[in-house]
Amino acid sequence: MMIIFYKSVMWLMQVLAKLLNMFIKLPSGVKLLKNVKYGELYKQKFDIYYNSKKDVKAIVFFTHGGGFISGDKLFYKGFCGKLSSVGYMVININYVLAPKASLDNMVTNVASAIEKSLDIIKPKKFCKKLIFSGDSAGTMIIFKAYEKLKSSGKLLFYKLGLIGVYGVYNLEWFNESLFPYKELFVKSIDTDIKFDNCLALTKKSDGEPILLVSGEVDKLHKNQTVPIINEYTKLGYNVNSFILDKSFSFGFHGFLACRNNKATKLMPEIVDKFIETSV
After folding, report:
1. What DSSP string describes 56-117?
2. pLDDT at 69
3. Which among 150, 68, 73 has a CA at the least distance from the CA of 111?
């Protein structure tokens, strides 16, 4: 019953988001190529945001949140548009959700979307920076997709960076937290909670920079973001963090999907500064 209730709420939110998206105007110069297919299933699509008036500073791959069982790329049209307006090409990726897909399936989906987009845009001709970013559960998925692609040698000769916004960085900690619906999320993704797969990143780094964004108003801040800083530092990552203090009353989990709050408006600037100075 819980999963039916949760999915019903998220379906209503998605309908509302689609209606609101009709009224979201992209910033001047920003173009949108919608629903590029990377597979045969309905969810296997991505959008490409680019700025026709500016050189590309970096390619930013982005995956939405939603606890592995819900969410959609359309919730982030406002954020992706604003990020593109300051000089980034953004690949906003949908993926098949649980319980239809396991966590491994989601990771494979996102890795395939990234490969397909690289084949289309051929960034080596104009840009050497690739950024892997996600919101909430999307962080877990895209960080694992990043490791998969890096291990296969497909990211050679690029400068790489990672961004996690309120990420689910460790499924074991998530399962032990007081976060609502945690049992529903963990059970839905059909993944054994073992040390070798509960962390979003598990392999030693070559010094790639990570930006972790979180806020003091949310339960996952202390449970996920604060402890993972030490874990990723041990793996050799150059860990940066931007913590939204309690003055950001709307800096809660999922704030990137909201259009005009203080935290959302600040994020393109924070991301831009991180990429320009650290990647």
Report:
1. --EEEEEE--STTTS--GGGGHHHHHHHHHTTEEEEEE--PPTTTS-HHHHHHHHHHHHHHH
2. 84
3. 150
Per-residue pLDDT at 180: 63
Tens-digit pLDDT profile for residues 79-135: 999 999 999 999 999 999 988 898 999 999 999 999 999 999 999 889 999 999 999
Q: Which residues contact 86 (CB under 8 A, 6 or more apart)?
A: 54, 57, 268, 269, 272
Q: How far apart are CA 39 and CA 279, in angstroms?
A: 31
Residue 25: HSE in the Cβ half-sphere, 13 Å Cα cutoff: 3
Q: Provide the residue count of the chain.
A: 279
> 189 near 103, Cβ under 8 Å?
yes
Contact 112, 95 (CB under 8 A): no
Cis-peptide, bond into residue 99, ω within 30° of zero:
yes
